[in-house]
Amino acid sequence: MDSVFTGKVSKKGQVVIPIQIRKALGLNKGSKVSFELNNGEITIKKLPTALDWANLVKQIPVEDVKIDENGYFDPKKSPDFHDWKVNG
């Protein structure tokens, strides 16, 4: 993000995150964020929701992958797994 936005700290220590950042991160009421302090700079990240994790799990291929005693598999017999392993 090339833009700089300004927020405000309330008497209670609450910070209003500018609307442009909330929209960019998909932050809504109840969204959770993490704060990391490193050398005087703060990084704020949106924490994944249960739905985010569920959508991620849906992307994992489901096929019967036979792994031999050496930890290898046949990519011809498991093409979806091979593609997922190589391309993510």
List the helices and strands and how they pair.
Layout: H1 19-25, E1 33-38, E2 41-46, H2 50-58, H3 79-87
Antiparallel strand pairs: 1-2
What is the count of DSSP helices, taking H or I runs of 4+ residues? 3
Proportion of residues in extended strands:
5-15%
Structural class by secondary-structure content: alpha+beta
Shape: elongated
Q: Assign a percent range to the helix content.
A: 25-40%
The chain-level mean pLDDT equals 86
> What is the N-to-C succession of helices and strands?
HEEHH
Give the oligomeric state of the chains in this entry, treating copies of one chain as homo and distinct chains as hetero.
single chain
Gyration radius over CA: 21 Å
Number of strands: 2
User: Which spans of ≥5 residues are poorly predicted at pLDDT below 50?
Assistant: none
Report the span from N to C terminus.
Answer: 25 Å
How would a textbook summarize the main sheet? 2 strands, antiparallel
> How are the strands of the largest sheet arranged?
1-2
